[in-house]
User: What shape does this take?
Amino acid sequence: MNQDKITPVTPEDVTHVVRNYVPRYVDLHDWLAVREFVQEAVLDSLPPSGDEARRRITIVAMMVAWAHRTAGYDLDRTAIFTLDVISEWIDQQCGQYTVKVKKMYRARLKSIAKEINSEFPVVPNETSYSSAWNPQPYSAAELAEVVGWARGQSTAMRRHKAEVLLSLTVGAGLYTNEVAALRVSDIESDAEGVLLHVRGAYERTVPVLAEWEDTLRDLVANVQPVDPEAYAFAPGRMNAKPAVVTAFVQSSNRSGSVEPQTRRMRATWIVEHIKAGIPPQIIAQAAGMVNLRSFDKWLYHYREFETSEYRALLRDELRAQKRTSRAGQKARQEARQLRLQA
Assistant: This one.
């Protein structure tokens, strides 16, 4: 009786797959810019077979090409193979995939990052896409500590940078790369509040939460007359690389028990809007998500309704109240505009 021979995998098999890989989902020009970095990263992750090497390089090539070209990260393992970048790539580029595929991508990238980035943190195993890998929002007490972190920086300039960072993340839900790229001219302030006109792959306009507006109003008032095209975070720099944000946080005074993390700041903004009952499609649009499928992992934050509220919603009572409220708000806005014109 013949038995199939098991051919052992050799390093040459893996190397051959990696060195001769031709990407199907990455632009040729982008591939040439990142090819060597991607190949070395995959080889150093020690794939156990040629098939696994092919799976790894396919995913790594897509993420690194996006991170380098679109998000502006340097080709550095400690900058790209991080929780933030992996999460941002999944959120911004994988919205068309199912939850199962996104979970698989995330798990494989995490496994690779553990091998090749000595600074990659220890995180729990993924039990579900909606919880284990979803960045946890700050509680009210934790957010108070993060605000204390910002106010406790050693110089006025560093305090201002930290406060702007919080205004753009906790106050408007921007990704790290969007924080780095936002310019003062992208901030619009009027009688109704502050708007951020986010450029890039996911252009959109985001209203800032009222409690975070003053920092951005002061920024516009002080910087716009001098240089309207200056970057909002850390004006005076010459490039929009997101490493400037992570470097600032890492070099800051972090003596408190709560670690300041931009992904948790953004998560706090998202979840606070969920708790306020804002419809998913509005949050997803303001958050720069590709589609509502990207919002799936946040759904478990929606609260359960009390029986009376549940009945009223389906009976249209609360919607009628909201329509009345919106009509009153519109009337107040029109009256305010008339006063301003007078």
